[in-house]
Amino acid sequence: MIIKCVPLFLFIILLAGCMKETVHADLYTYIQYNLKEVIPLEKKAVESYQSVTGSNYTSDQSLYTTLNHDVIPMYADFVTQLKAIHPETKEVQDIHHLYVKAASLQLQAFSMMSEVLINNDQSKVQEVNSMLEDARNIMNRYMDSLNKLANKQHLTLEDYDVFSTI
Question: Which region is the signal sequence (predicted)?
Answer without folding.
Answer: 1-25
